[in-house]
Design goal:
- One of its GO terms (molecular function) is glycosyltransferase activity.
- With 229 residues, the protein is an alpha/beta fold.
- It has a domain of 152 residues: Rossmann fold, CATH 3.40.50.
- It contains seven helices and eight strands, in the order H-E-H-E-E-E-E-H-H-E-H-E-H-E-H.
- The longest helix is centred in the middle third of the chain and has 23 residues.
- The protein is globular.
- The two termini are 26 Å apart.
Length: 229
Amino acid sequence: MFADRAEAGQRLGVRLRRLSPPLERPIVYALPRGGVAVGAAVAAALGHAPLDLVLVRKIGAPGQPELALGAVVNGAEAETVLNADVVALTGADEAYIARARAQALAEIERRRQLYLAGRPRPDPRGRAAVVVDDGLATGATARAALHALRRRGPARLVLAVPVAPPETIAALRGEADEIVCLAESEIPFGIGGCYADFHQLDDAEVIRLLDAAAAAARSAPEGGGGSAG
């Protein structure tokens, strides 16, 4: 469906610019790592809006790390969202979930220090917050991210993704004010099967994308993030 994450982000940006009413003073919140490449392109399309991160981690199922048992986000306070059906299916007990949650929070803290230390963080209160990832499977990480951002008081909360199964989009309808998904499709080969280039971003690439977006936002009119309309 997509050449790479940048192309997917450009196409998402076009759709987001067409929303009515327009997004006012948007901030783009990417889910690292893969979502940062999509989010950088979205931020550029929205008039070089500020690009920030939601530090959220998937909790993988026992023996199946790619299957999302749930997710944890470390915002104002750590919040865990579980997929009850996956928990029941895999038989994950409370001890396993506690260990996996602790490991996820440790990685979140590592990323916070590496990606965000010294960077100004925009306040979403009263603004449009756009949560971006490179695709959804169960939606656990997106749900956790939306919960965390909702607590911070944005005037409008939008979820924007290139691809996700229809049932995942339906399950997330109540979590965001709007959802923009370019392709509601089953993903039998995973999210990576929807991209020609789906290389794994490393820390250095994430930092380069954040630095470039910050420089572009500083030079944009009004410091970036004006009306997307």
